[in-house]
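Replying to the earlier thread about multi-chain prediction with a worked example.

Input:
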Amino acid sequence: MALLKTVAFALLMGVSALAQSPTYRVGRTPTAEEIRAWDISIGPTGEELPPGRGTVREGAQLYRTKGCAGCHGATAIDGKAPILKSKAGPDVELWARGRILPLRAPFATTVWDYINRAMPLNREGTLTADEVYAITAYLLFINDVIREDEVLDAKTLPNVKMPIGGDYASLPDWKPRTPRLKGYPH
Amino acid sequence: MGVKRPARREFLKSGAALAGGFTLGGVAPASGQTPAGQTHADQPHASPSMIHEAKDQIAYGERSAHVTSVRIAHGGRPSPDNWGLTFHVAAPLQDSVGIITPSSLHYMGTTRGAFLPDVDPKEHRLMIHGLVDRPLTLTMEDLKRLPSVTRIHFIECAGNRSSRRAKTVQETHGMTSCAEWTGVLLSTLLKECGLKTGASWFVAEGSEEVKGASSMPIAKAMEDCFVAYGMNGEAVRPQNGFPLRLMVPGFEGIFHTKWLRRIKVVDRYYMNYNDFGHLDRDPKVAALDYQIGPKSVVTFPSAGQQLPARGFYEVSGLAWSGGGAIKKVEVSTDGGKRWNLAEIKGIAHRMAHTRFSYMWNWDGQESEIQSRCTDELGQVQPSRAEIAKYWNKPFDATFSVPGLDNSIQPWRIAGDGSVTNGFA
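Result:
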């Protein structure tokens, strides 16, 4: 019995070890440096944020000099590109104030990530980390999310309290071969 | 078009019309080239004119100059727009036959409007990292060494919803298409990397200038996602993600990350810009916002088309579902009072357009034609009235379907044979 158990255990270990080792060995292992250079995903914890810092005042200036105002408008609501500030005041409930990134995003890291990866149009990826922190700070300030004297960096940015709080639905667990919503609509 | 016209085509057309018992006048094209009272059917031995092929047409063929079906910018935003960005472009479903959308007519959408990247496949890399034991960088050459799958799948944009203003099925439903895709299962790649404990989501990212990225469940990655380099028998087209795109069968279009360059395995929903765009307040709406529901539409006859006369027609359409294969399609010609079983043409592939047909004799009276489908999970395509009832909302002009819109599309056929949008 003890022998059988040992054999079963060994088999199990063997199978699991097999499942964990690569089968085809095609491709190569990227270096840690390559991964750092490619990885522009900034998750909610902000663990990937680079060093740097930015203020609201710097952001206000960059908003003009880096071309943000050209597409989004000097007041952030008067351009051809999507508005960056709610036209409705804080008396209107958040979900009715429009899908505005620096206002409705659940995490300030999403604002930083998007400016860093996707702005300015045609010159994506050219902003320095300091500049991204500063523009993020400015956009959060004009939406009354942070105060004018706040400084954003890798430590403070993930801790910014966004107005939405937890007032949004998380995606339900996806399972294969399962209806998307039971009983809908029959 | 040249002065000489291909007589054979006219002959065939007229012949088909005669066989169908219709009057010639209703079908023959209005053109000044044929002498009055004389058609090419009267000259059955006339030879068609020749297509003089240029060298580039020998190398890569073109469709007939007489076939003019084209894509259109979707939803009122021009593509390319003021900045030269391509946003959303809809496929001409009204002209479609079978289930495969030609690559040149496949709908396209981009994250925010994007410039098409010109990616050199020799330089392209796919990096997989994050919560894996062995991060991996693969060239296109590497990927083509690995075991592949070839599958037929639809892709549909979340913005594919009918409105009262839409004049054709291209405007109501053109943001869906179906192609044969070839590539490597994501599960193959992730097993090669080895998933770490806590790996529950992954982020896929494109290499275009906006670097569009979305979070998706690992369960989906291990079920049926694949990275595709082949489309309809050749390389994926630039508009569809050349040289590599992610396929997420049955999920809405934006998840099918084009120009795929990076997959990061993570332990939480990563709240990328695209994820932010998906946020809903109500968990029930959220549940209806990523896997496409059972959906179908009649493509012939559809709004903007004209029935030349009463009599026999093969009603034809497409059905698809993110839940799996289409099991049943029904057609109603009386506004949804009575439903008749339609024939499913060929194989109903999972998460793929499925062609259906229904043999119909039009009596020349006003009719309203609709289709509805049922998928392998038993999900049934609802009418808008049923959806409104589910949400306890009045079904009027202001009603908008929450989540992805998979509602039944009515087409109204007037006594003169003109077909219009039943929501108008």
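The two ends of chain B are 36 Å apart (CA to CA).

Feel free to reuse this layout for your own posts.
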